[in-house]
Every structure is written in structure tokens, then in C-alpha cells.
Amino acid sequence: SGVAAAGSSLAGLRILISAGGTREPLDPVRFIGNRSSGKQGVALADAAIAEGARVTFVGAHLEVPPPRGAELHSVETAEELRVEMLALQGGADIIIMAAAVADYRPSEVAEGKIKKDVAGDVLTLELVKNADILAELSSQRADDQVIVGFAAETAATRDELLELGQAKIARKGCDYLVLNRVGWSEGFTTDHNTVVLLDRTGHIVIEAAGSKLSVAHSILSALAVPSRTHAH
Ligand code: CTP
Ligand code: CA
């Protein structure tokens, strides 16, 4: 240790980051998606690379360019993301699940385009629950692997936001949860963010506000990473 230059506090660490939003197909031309842009996840990758980490980045439909200098993987669906994350888990010191994963997928994917004259005036979709990737990664991680989840909540108050976050981190079994409030206009496509970082006991580690890049650096600095002080 002692070889890391200033600004290279993550030197030698391997960080696996998922970002963006998954898309669940309905037929060959349609999908169910979400409003995640991938910006905060890309900012985390950029920040980690700037701090000297080796970043593996799994992107699901990004609306921004992928991070430069990362090993890039690209997925569409929640199940593809799950398979990719499980395959890459073993090589990571830190895993950050910034992706917005579809909670449900259509129970059937039509082989051809769904047609109005066949479906009629009311089309009912049946959705089935997707596996919880973060919970699965957390349940099978190595002792010194640090796992970070994200939660965007539409809470009415700060207290409600913290309560939702505390319940969620307990349910997921990860080490940290990056919590933020979203609404119809805030959170997704903007260049700034306001987050609260919770630890596994539900306590606030830090709060950060600013550009998504500065929030990313704040989050990374706050993680207690066993090997941060060692040279790899
Ligand atoms: N997540 C995941 N697999 C899923 C759903 C979510 O890995 N099938 C991850 C997300 O990437 C995020 C964290 O879990 O890091 C929290 O996602 P969130 O949608 O807030 O939690 P859910 O458990 O899906 O609960 P809900 O959407 O009902 O609030
Ligand atoms: Ca969800």
C-alpha cells in the first residue's frame, strides 16, 4: 500500500456496475420499459475509473454514452441482466446495482406483432415477477465483497423516504443503499441528484447533492472497502 496517488483511492479495485433500465418484450416491436437514463450509473463508472478502479459496466438501454475506459456489457431484459451479473460477480470487489430492473415481465411474448383486430377493444396483459438480482447477489457474496443497491422512491416526506429505504435494505441484504426521491420530473433524466446513503443497519452514512458525477464521488468515498488501503 501507499502507492496510490491522490485521487486514486480505488486503485486496483474491481468494480462491477449495472445501469440503465431493462426492457421486457411484448412482441418483436414493443416492450415494457422505465424512465431510467443510466446517467447516475455512468457517472459512478466515470468516477470509479478516475479514482483508479477497474470497472466492468453492464448497461441496459442507456440514454447517455457508456463510460470510457470500462469493460462494457450490454443487456436488454431483467433476466439477461441477472445472468450477466451472476457470471461477473466473482471478479468484483464492489458491486453497484444502479440499474432500474423491471419488476415484472409479460408472461408471454407474442411471436408476431400484436394486432388490434385480433386483440379487440381491451387488451389485458399478464405480467409475472422477475427474480430479485440484488437480493440474489447479496445472498451469495464473498465475505469481503461490498454490494450497493439503489432505491428511487416516490415518498411524500423525508421520514417516509428513510422508512422505505430502511425496510428495503433489510429486505435486500446488501451493504449500502443509495436512496433518492423521484417524481414525474425529478431524478431520472436530470444532471443533478440528491441522495442519502444508508448502511445495512439503516443508518445514514452520508447525504450528497450536486451533479451526478460529484454525487458518484461522494458515494464511492463513503464506502468502507476492506481492500481500499491495500495494494493489489
Ligand atoms: N433490483 C434487482 N432486481 C430486481 C428489482 C430490483 O436487482 N428484480 C435492484 C435494483 O437494481 C436496485 C434495488 O434492487 O438496486 C432496489 O430496486 P427497487 O425497484 O427500489 O426495489 P424493489 O425490490 O423492486 O421494490 P419496489 O420496486 O416494489 O419498491
Ligand atoms: Ca422495483
TrEMBL record:
Gene Ontology cellular component? Answer: phosphopantothenoylcysteine decarboxylase complex
Q: In which pathway does it act?
A: Cofactor biosynthesis; coenzyme A biosynthesis; CoA from (R)-pantothenate: step 3/5; Cofactor biosynthesis; coenzyme A biosynthesis; CoA from (R)-pantothenate: step 2/5
Quote the record's cofactor note.
Binds 1 FMN per subunit.
The gene from which this protein is expressed is coaBC
Name the domain of life this protein comes from: Bacteria
Q: What does this protein do?
A: Catalyzes two steps in the biosynthesis of coenzyme A. In the first step cysteine is conjugated to 4'-phosphopantothenate to form 4-phosphopantothenoylcysteine, in the latter compound is decarboxylated to form 4'-phosphopantotheine.
One GO biological-process annotation of the entry reads: pantothenate catabolic process
Its recorded name reads Coenzyme A biosynthesis bifunctional protein CoaBC
Q: Which residues bind CTP?
A: D103, K113, F150, K168, K172
Q: Name the segments for region: Phosphopantothenate--cysteine ligase.
A: 15-232
The entry sums up its family as follows: In the N-terminal section; belongs to the HFCD (homo-oligomeric flavin containing Cys decarboxylase) superfamily.
What are the alphabetically sorted keywords of the record?
Decarboxylase, Flavoprotein, FMN, Ligase, Lyase, Magnesium, Metal-binding, Multifunctional enzyme
Q: What is its EC number?
A: 4.1.1.36, 6.3.2.5
GO molecular function annotation: FMN binding; metal ion binding; phosphopantothenate--cysteine ligase activity; phosphopantothenoylcysteine decarboxylase activity
Q: Does the entry feature the keyword Transmembrane, yes or no?
A: no
Q: Which reaction does it catalyse?
A: N-[(R)-4-phosphopantothenoyl]-L-cysteine + H(+) = (R)-4'-phosphopantetheine + CO2; (R)-4'-phosphopantothenate + L-cysteine + CTP = N-[(R)-4-phosphopantothenoyl]-L-cysteine + CMP + diphosphate + H(+)
Q: Which residues of the full protein are shown?
A: 190 to 421 of 429
Cofactor(s) it depends on: FMN; Mg(2+)
Q: Domain named DNA/pantothenate metabolism flavoprotein C-terminal: which ranges?
A: 10-223
